[in-house]
Amino acid sequence: MSVNDDVIKAGVASDADYMGRFLRDSQEVNSADISAIIPLCMAPYFSLVLHEAKLKPQTIDPSVFNGFSAEAEKVCARARHSLKLFEDNQRNIEGQLNFFEDDILKKHSAYFLGNTWLRFARRWERGLGLFTYEGKIVTTSHAAAFHLGVDSEKLFQDDRGVYRLSVMRQMGRCFAALGSRLDTHGGETFIRYLSGSRLKSADVLPSTYYAKSFTGDSTRAAINVALTDFQVRMNFIDNIITAGSDTSKLEYTVFKIRYLTLYQVLLSLKLLMGDSRYPLPPASRAVIGKILTASAGRAVTDRTVRHFRNTLMHYNLLPSADNAKVDLTQPIFGLVPQYFPGYSFEELSGLVNTSISETARALNDWSGGV
Q1: Helix, strand or coil for residue 140?
Q2: pLDDT digits (tens, 9 = 90+) for 250-263
Q3: What is the rounded CA–CA span in Å between residue 213 and residue 137?
Q4: CA 38, 40, 41, 42 torsion: positive or negative?
């Protein structure tokens, strides 16, 4: 077996083990709200693991995916691709904005609004759910739907949840085949450290909410939908997924989720800033400019570390890696010093943590509209 195969197997095994422990802990937390909402934040990362593992049939036993339907594959692929945000090479910025307009804003509003037969009571109808933890928004109904990878028609179909349950069960069987266990005695995951009393929800009108956030009504509403998604992603990795952990000593899966999310948000902001088709108000450009010029963010997204990001995303090593220096006993298999000369894993974790905190804070401040 090659070093590359060893790295793939180790990465998949680590992720499968973590996801099993997360599901175990989700069933045991003493809060119905936490066990219902927080897994929605984790959904695209579950799909990421399965989608990428399935693409490695020479290393990961293909029988793991026996019974995994074409429909389940499509759901996982869409959810996994959603993590790339504006860097999705199938949709790019325009495709994502069109998706937010057509599949999120229009279809969600059509489903949730205008259903009250008493005309005067429609003022109390709402179409956007907001979920905050300790006062910071960590997901919305729009963001959750985007990252689930389920078509709107199937998300809202009246089948008593049969479709969604079928996909979830298929994913669960695949994770079990990869090594996920609900009866594992491994370490606790972050969800154990969350408090249901700190998770709050509110229902608002999307048209009103987005018109007052980020760029206000000076741009397409879909841009503010996307920026809100960036905001909830950053707050999730800043405030939620590290609960109960030392951020300088995070295990493989948690570090991976944080790094990839940070990388994609920063790259997406850079793409938006640089595309003349989407003019932004001067104050908004100033905010993005400040985020992108922060030293920590520049270091973790530099072009020279793209292959580090790719290994975390796809599991396999890239030609730039020195296989002789790969060490499966070290964090991220000893790749940190190769791509970040002079940095230990703990030091890189500190850099990532700084960038996450700075970016989340900037997005939270900006979300009030400028």
Answers
A1: strand
A2: 999 999 999 999 99
A3: 13
A4: positive
